[in-house]
Design brief:
Elements lengths: L3 E8 L2 H6 L3 H12 L5 E9 L8 H13 L2 E4 L9 H9 L4 E3 L7 H35 L13 H32 L5 H11 L12 H11 L13
Parallel strand pairs: 1-2, 1-3, 3-4
Helix pairs in contact: 4-5, 6-8, 7-8
Amino acid sequence: MKGKFVAYYRVSTRKQGASGLGIEAQRAAVASYLGGGPATVVAEFTEVESGRRSNRPALDAALTAARVHQAALVVAKVDRLTRSVGFLARLLEAGVDVRFADLPMIEGPTGRFMLQQMAAVAELEAGLISSRTKAALAAAKARGQRLGGNRGGTLSGKARAKGREAQAMLAKRRAYDLAPLLAELQAGGTQSPSAIAKALTARGIPTARGYTTWSAPQIIRMRHRLGTAPKEPTNEIDL
């Protein structure tokens, strides 16, 4: 196995998290999957949370680290994820390659397809629940029970605005992913765009397009997106 990886572990109880039970088994599964070759684990994140909940700060941090390092996210077992539609959709939209240690042949486009199928199954389950709910409401209405009024409203204007902002938001996400690292460099005395570009290059942080060398203009554009530079108009959207 070659490349860079960010490992994500999850246990369901705080007792397991404190004792290491479950986490060590997951760590061993990930190590076995990587095979001890030239693969590099650039970061590890552990979540102590129920699989039913979608609020996972450690996962968000893991996805951010994977994007920063342009690494794959590796999970010990598929069941460490979830069947939540929203959660799986977040993984698909994160722009990160997800690997499963217990399914070593699932990666790249195949892995993404698997996530899509998992999301589809979860959506089907949610749809079936919705259908049963609607049927129950229809039955209640047939009995003469009042169910509420018209909520009205349209989304056309907001939808168009979101469409126009989508590309800019993607560019900003990359800048925000790197913001803590930029702050760390600046706090250590690395201030100029050229110096920051050299520091990112030295640390092996790839650009959004996968290049290993940064330039001062890229840092300037990032600062504009973060609002930490003098406001000057720019039409650039790629780092």
